[in-house]
Amino acid sequence: MSDITVTPLVHPGEFTDMLTDVLRSGARQLLDPAVEAEVESFIEEYADHRLEDGRVRRGYLPERDIQTGIGAVQVEQPRVRDRGGVNGDRIKYSPHILPKDAWRTKC
User: Among the four residues 19, 34, 96, 102, which has the most C-beta atoms within 10 Å?
Assistant: First the structure.
């Protein structure tokens, strides 16, 4: 018989229960369309500033994790080409939902 009473601790973000997986999946299903809507709004706002080839979307940045109260949620951010503005100024897309330096939600 063994007298070992050590219980391994679960690290934050490493939940394995089914409910947490459902919540993370739901968070991603809500976040993806919101990010896409923000990008489409930006593209429509600057529709008259097209690049020479007419394209504005450039795929996606690598997925990254945002730490939330239910653990890490993977997010994917679209890439948008910089556009020429008035007097040679560049118009650069900077998302409000997923700022570049965001790595966790405000609790």
Answer: 102
Residue carrying structure tokens 């405000």:
106
Q: What is the pTM of this model?
A: 0.66
Per-residue pLDDT of the chain (107 residues), as tens digits, is 567 777 777 665 565 678 888 888 898 899 889 989 998 888 888 777 666 666 677 788 888 888 888 878 888 888 887 766 556 667 777 788 887 777 777 65
**Residue in 102, 80, 99 with CA at minimum distance from that of residue 91:** 80
Q: Where are the domains of the chain?
A: 8-49+56-107
